[in-house]
Amino acid sequence: MEGVERTFERMVHEHQDRLYALGYALTGNRHDAEEVAQDTLLRAYRALVSYSPERVRELKQRPWLHRIAINVARNRHRGLRPRLVELNGSEQDTSPGPEARALRKAQLDDVTAALAGLPPRYREAVVLRYVQDLSYDEAAQVLGQPVGTVKSNVHRALKLLRGENHDRADD
Amino acid sequence: MTVRTIDLKQLGRMKAPAGFSERVLAQAGIGDSYGVFDTVLGSVHVAWNSHGVSAAMRARSDEEFEKWFRREVGRPLTPATPPADLSARLVNELGGKRGLRFDLRGLTEFEQSVLRKAREIPRGQVRPYGWIAREIGHPRAVRAVGTALANNPIPYFIPCHRVVRSDGVIGNYGGGGPEAKKQILSLEGVGLSKLQELARAGYRYEGVRSTKIYCYPTCHHARRAQDRNVVWLHDEAEAGALGFRPCKVCRPPAAAA
């Protein structure tokens, strides 16, 4: 038990920022981002406790946690929660300088607003590839899709994000 | 607006909010929570987790307690509302009724056995360091026992204050210095001045003529004896020579055969 707790503590410290960013990119606001990240880690912990020591040791934490997070975010969406896109800037942020912060925050909010407008399968693909910096292979593994599917979804997502809206006919 | 991949990468550099990891670990039952409780000893900061009470300290502020906890225990710590019955259990424990579970996982096997043994000393009584050492099967490790008690993360509730030097010197105390130790012992009904007087005169044990049994002076059984039956003894050899046997409750050492 002690071993699993240590593993989990390290996992939380190592992956918390990444999972929070993932939650933010998928849900579009900081409150939901924190909930997604927290639910993901708690689910991971419950799973770790039930795994054999070998399985815990051989676990590829990054894709595994991403897969859980994607599921958590999808389930929340299914739960008919209203998706909020954050408009004000009242939440705390730990980056330096008020102006730089305001600017950066506004930019980030624009990015998440744009992501929120994408169909979920495009959003998931492009977030894993570019926000989270997974390789196509890893993203495909996380999503349980063929690499080619992921590549084309990322490509379409980028097109939409750039404002090239005209090939949505195949949706 | 037009979103480029560089904007997406920027998004990936976000940091989780302050305190996030602590909250997650606490939710998983790994980190510890703490609150401040009013007790006979004044206000005491107490930390707990799913395994039980993990630390206690009479701290002047939350910051002081958090700092101390990080240094001594090293796990994440967050303030929280305590479980409903914790406050009552803490008060009971100080009143001599045992109902608390303790989390001693961070300590060595030896330290744990020292603290478990200290917990067997009843309220209102004291034992010498050597008693603990002997009872846990390391009769020569008296100093190590002292160190383990000094590092007790849960003073007051695990009563390390009930372990005193056999020469009558109160000895130092991790829970707030010798003065605090005296204060707590007096509060528990230990007649300290009498005890110190005896110790300075070289008396370690109280023998009872009618039963031919000798005890530590604070033992419940020794205190029941009538004054005319009491005989003060310097050591176990003297007791043995007079035909006394050690009390089976407070368990002073037997005379060497």
Structure description:
The complex is a heterodimer of chains A (171) and B (257). Chain A is mainly α. Chain A has two domains: 1-81, RNA polymerase sigma factor, region 2, helix turn helix motif (Rna Polymerase Sigma Factor, Chain: A), CATH 1.10.1740; 97-171, Arc Repressor Mutant, subunit A (Orthogonal Bundle). Chain A has eight helices and no strands. Chain A has helices at 2-27, 30-50, 53-58, 61-78, 98-116, 120-131, 136-143, 147-161. The longest helix of chain A has 26 residues, at 2-27. With 257 residues, chain B is of the alpha/beta class. Chain B folds into three domains: 23-93, Double Stranded RNA Binding Domain, CATH 3.30.160; 106-190, Winged helix-like DNA-binding domain superfamily/Winged helix DNA-binding domain (Arc Repressor Mutant, subunit A); 203-257, DNA Methylphosphotriester Repair Domain (3-Layer(aba) Sandwich). Chain B has helices at 5-11, 20-27, 62-72, 86-94, 109-118, 129-135, 142-150, 177-187, 192-200, 220-224, 236-241, and strands spanning 32-39, 42-49, 52-57, 77-79, 127-128, 163-164, 205-208, 213-215, 230-233, 245-246. In chain B, the strands form three sheets. Chain B has a four-stranded mixed beta sheet, with helices on both faces. A four-stranded mixed beta sheet of chain B has the order 9-7-8-10. Chains A and B meet through helix 1, helix 2, helix 5 and helix 6 of A and helix 1 and helix 2 of B.
